[in-house]
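Memo to structure team: turn this sequence into structure tokens by end of day. - J.P.
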Amino acid sequence: MEYTGSQSEKVVPAGELGRSHIGQTISFQPNEFTVVFGKLAGIARTEAMVYLSLTGVGNGTHLKDEYDLPLNHDVYVPVDVISNAESTIKDLFGKVQENLRGATHKGDDKTDRL
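Reply from structure team:
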């Protein structure tokens, strides 16, 4: 099994998880047979590993609520909709400005010719 997240998620190395991710629903594949979805309750980090504590996962027959992952292990977190929207708006605004400048210059060139 090769889990790659969903369209509403972005990949983050486990070593980059921090306080801002606590409370978010994350997903990851700890081994080749299992995909985990759960709410991040806590993070502990050493030089080589990240330890994740999850809520909403444990207490099942084969389900754990704690996982240890290498720092570079892929973890999928929700996409920050506000930042993405802000970036998209800035990009579109920049394109509109370029188009308006281009139209103005073309119009100026035509009016300068007699």
